Amino acid sequence: MRVVVGADVGGTKLAVRVAPLDAQPDGDQDPAYTDHLLAADGWEASPVDTAAGWLLERLARVVPEGAEIAAVGIGAQGCDTQHHCAELAAAVEKSGVPAVVVNDAALLMPAAGLDTGIGVVAGTGSIAVAADAGGNVLFAGGWGWVLGDEGGAPAIVRDAVRAALAAYDAGSADDGLLAALLDHFAAPDPQTLARIVNDEPTPGNWGPAAPAVFRAADAGSALAAGVIEGAARELELLVSRLVGRGAVGDTVVAAGSVVVRQPRLADAFRARLAAEQPRLTLRLLDVPPVAGALALARTRLRRT
User: What pLDDT is recorded for position 30?
Assistant: First the structure.
């Protein structure tokens, strides 16, 4: 049996979709597929030979025994230039498997059934991807949680802790944000909160606290609401930078755990786009991005 495979490598998980080669998609629906979710522990996009080995070893775990991979489409966090994507695809193809590699945010358009548009991921990290009229891939953001990733969960928590501690230093009464953060981190006081956050400045420590920020905003915290509004503004800026560089398409397709699961952020992002880029429409992706990877695999197969 021959199969086509899509893989979406994110900051914390690897999603894989496998479909028989003879199960042709009906419109944007791909029948007879199986989905698999693996941890993305140890994923690094460079060096490409190591990255290719990491991917192929994990694909072998989920592809049916005896099946041949006819083509694979890969969306990979950390592949942030066309050159890097091409190098990783070539490294995968050394195994004899035809491959196409894009940044994981570039999966959003094919997953949504679109040829053009701007993909925005806001989850563990944040990045925006599009293409210009000449087909050149454009990136904005994706600099990692230390330098940015505004709109992603760790950055939202970082900014919320800053805001809450600044208000505490100013002698302001807690409006609910500090209490929410203290509760999440099981910290008895602001000083301990600062130590817990500073001592382990990682996405794994910071990111899970993001829902607490949204709960505080929903309960009336102006500080939390301001942090979320700031995150939406940063996501809009990513889009506007790509528009300024010639991105084509009239739809922004957003995915990622934060923007999809938190309506307050999605609504604020939509409002910012309406104000700054009124020709663009925001669409939240309602299928897994790995669907776009499988679509790319089928396209790659047609080129062989």
Answer: 54
